[in-house]
Structure of 3-keto-5-aminohexanoate cleavage protein:
Amino acid sequence: MAIEQESVKGNDPDKAIISASLTGALTTRDQCEAIPYTPEEIAEDAAAARENGAAVAHIHARTENGSPTFDTDIYQRIYEEVRERTDVLINFSTGAMHEPVESRLEYIEAVEPDIAALNMGSMNYAKYSENRDDFVFDMVFENPFNEIRDFLTTMRENGVKPELECFDTGHVGNIRPFVQNGELEAPINFSLVMGVLGGIPPTVENLAHQVRQLPDDATWQVIGISREQWQLVSAALAMGGNIRVGLEDNFYLPSGEMSTNPELVAKAAEMTRNVGREPATPAEAAELMCIEPPHL
Amino acid sequence: MAIEQESVKGNDPDKAIISASLTGALTTRDQCEAIPYTPEEIAEDAAAARENGAAVAHIHARTENGSPTFDTDIYQRIYEEVRERTDVLINFSTGAMHEPVESRLEYIEAVEPDIAALNMGSMNYAKYSENRDDFVFDMVFENPFNEIRDFLTTMRENGVKPELECFDTGHVGNIRPFVQNGELEAPINFSLVMGVLGGIPPTVENLAHQVRQLPDDATWQVIGISREQWQLVSAALAMGGNIRVGLEDNFYLPSGEMSTNPELVAKAAEMTRNVGREPATPAEAAELMCIEPPHL
Amino acid sequence: MAIEQESVKGNDPDKAIISASLTGALTTRDQCEAIPYTPEEIAEDAAAARENGAAVAHIHARTENGSPTFDTDIYQRIYEEVRERTDVLINFSTGAMHEPVESRLEYIEAVEPDIAALNMGSMNYAKYSENRDDFVFDMVFENPFNEIRDFLTTMRENGVKPELECFDTGHVGNIRPFVQNGELEAPINFSLVMGVLGGIPPTVENLAHQVRQLPDDATWQVIGISREQWQLVSAALAMGGNIRVGLEDNFYLPSGEMSTNPELVAKAAEMTRNVGREPATPAEAAELMCIEPPHL
Amino acid sequence: MAIEQESVKGNDPDKAIISASLTGALTTRDQCEAIPYTPEEIAEDAAAARENGAAVAHIHARTENGSPTFDTDIYQRIYEEVRERTDVLINFSTGAMHEPVESRLEYIEAVEPDIAALNMGSMNYAKYSENRDDFVFDMVFENPFNEIRDFLTTMRENGVKPELECFDTGHVGNIRPFVQNGELEAPINFSLVMGVLGGIPPTVENLAHQVRQLPDDATWQVIGISREQWQLVSAALAMGGNIRVGLEDNFYLPSGEMSTNPELVAKAAEMTRNVGREPATPAEAAELMCIEPPHL
Ligand SMILES: [Zn+2]
Ligand SMILES: [Zn+2]
Ligand SMILES: [Zn+2]
Ligand SMILES: [Zn+2]
């Protein structure tokens, strides 16, 4: 059904893996009421997202009042609550600006999610307000090679599939040492993140270029941050890519209406079918990424 | 709303022009019942397509039994029947394999449609059957420069906007003599045709490359032939492109169901809204292409 | 030594194959005195080109007064005179505007050169004079699929390696039927021809795009027609490509001075060394292209 | 003479600006005897480089024993010694790993070189040893937006042309806020740096992509670090780019022989002529970059 095109790489041209980024770390219910905080709320959203077409739930833990937390117990409870309800693949964040690596490794080792995100390079991470001609925030997002290596080692030793988050062309190139020394095993699983000021700008041209840099058997998804998300989803689906939507990345439907995690996934599933593809099940996603299928 | 990206070129990032290719020349009601033949049938489909989001109707004339015809009277009747019912922009084909240039110029001169298609180069035009290991058809589609020049002259003299159909990278490059001598005036209006064996293969990578070759102020649409159409539509919408759908190019909805011209346009309009854009009206399309707005 | 880059494809990053296009069909000694006509003259140039770094001699036969000829005896004599003097790989043209396929197949079958060129698609083939605002020539270069197939069959049956001349993106795509039915065997050997009006324009951007379309194990060279040749040579050498120079394609050194076949090859060899690569020997070229090494 | 290609952007297709990176900060005479340390040595190399084709000298100050220094007096003496001998444009580095911004702004303000380099983003800056399976060094090169802004302001107030060093695709995108608020004025002058682990990998494909991201009127050069330099020079010259060579970036001629600044520039000038272009004079370079021509 799908175009025979190089950009499919290791993905399935007929099935698209939809990931739901349920929580994120930075936004709050003041901005968007539907963000889940507690393990139960997160698990309910995960189950509803699965129902609507998601195969993966990407999760940052929160305290009950919504602050970001790296507490292993909370991550454990999230894992259990989700798994009780649904077979969706569980993907934990490991990113943070000011949290030491050790505390971000601990819950990965203890809980062993199916997948964990891993930031593949350093960059500026900023937001600019044209009105005020000033930077709303202006940080250096530090992910040196030795930290990347520590994450890779822990994930490999614990059977956790790394999801390599690449915010720029060089971040994709940063796999080279770990391919050479065997710490990264095929099929490598990439997220091409676009739309953060400091990283690669969110254009289809740039997405196509990022995909060209990937190994032939790599799996990949696009992560579009904020308003450009739906256009990047539309392009990625055409290219044979997988996609991520959810309140971590963008609150709004294409119409501009504020939404919820299950609704955003439903729209992503509709768009998947509009290019003649079907949403992959968690079992199909697991097979493509060469990980153990989820068991309820 | 749209991404600030180079690929928008002279298009409107917020509005997508949807063209409906209602008839074509090669297919018949034996293959797809919903193909309109008579001027009245064509005009009814044009009006319904306009209702569902189309701003342009691209038309090949047919006799009552469905054969292709280059008869000026029939083209005149089509023009009148369409214009009686709707303000959609009227775009006539000029392509043919074995019809002399003169007869294809005559109806353009006589009827003066808003837009006329113009093939910008020669190529093989073939279909290969893998099962039979043979070519279903294997032609040389001849469009030498002197014929291109004749069409351009006639169109310019009659106030007809050329739509440059480019089946390969070199066809885009073939504008060079006509830009240098002033026969092509900005904004040049391109159709990037993909999916014919002999021309550029229908991949997003190739679409992106074709768009890169266009002048900065050019307007453009993608024309995807057969099954790859919806993926190319999905990619083009993300890139800021205009799109064409209709029974000339493809009979099927993304689901695989055989369809009709109005339904195909409705699906294209839905996909346009899914990237946060709106279908352009005929008046908006006319303004973008610098042509006279249609009058009922 | 060379960059690890995708564009190398099946080439050798450390060795560049230099082809010398000694004669061509269209130009005469009135335009450039150094064009060889007779088998002896051609063979002398082949030997001198080999001495200066060429691994392949690409040859069109000529009569004694310089007219193009498809005479099998002359091709046979060329083969013998060249092989008497040097181990350069012998590559015969098969292209022509108005010569029937049969006569172009005959000398391939009879003489069995190491390599033969094969045009992979149809296109306009023209030259435009800006001063006169007119086309100096304006032809349709016809190479339908059934003729391509005939050439492929004859070459395969006679142990002649095809060199696929691709003047546009679609021409590369035209390999699809012949890959599917097994008539084209890896490593496929491509020439990316650039600089003819009607085909793909001669830019580095376009060269890079053409290379991206090739199979991973394909060998490739760039053929730049006229003044743009040296820039395309410079880019191709950087990309890991092979190169062609010679009086068929361009008479002039980069300085603008009219030159000879051996001098043009010497300049190409110097440029090869300037990117840290070495000219391949005929034996090395044969191994890369999977053909029998030449025997004196 | 040059190809009409988009990649030329604001450069001169007929003239290439050669920059000589004479010193750098990290390497020593133990590694390469010919590195100049003192103002006099640097000025002698600048004059010899100018003689051989360089239009710009890019300089990091050193103490007498070769350590990097940010001392304003030394930068002042370098400026005077160079200007006494030659009209080459003077370009000062502003980059450093652990030196505060203030001390890097001071000598720019005090000495007012023609041009000053400015790093446009953060990234990992590392070197990996395959033999030892370890990182030889592994740093985060921090250049947050507020520091970039400080440099831009100081340069603009002192009539110093910024040379934007971009190590990745996102770094090119980082101009956006400064274009919007007018702090960056056209023609923007880019250096596309390739070959540092952590930044964009040094392929022609990546170079072409970086160039595509630039504004149409931007000037640009490629800076290839270490062995890939000559290939990137070869590609950039073909694309209409400017080039940088010198002991800061690479000690070796394409043959592998260790070299000197004047010899490296002579090779770059030879390669420039091999694509039919000429080295620009300092006055021609100044005009292209819209800066005051140098006065002796
Ligand atoms: Zn996250
Ligand atoms: Zn048509
Ligand atoms: Zn030839
Ligand atoms: Zn420097």
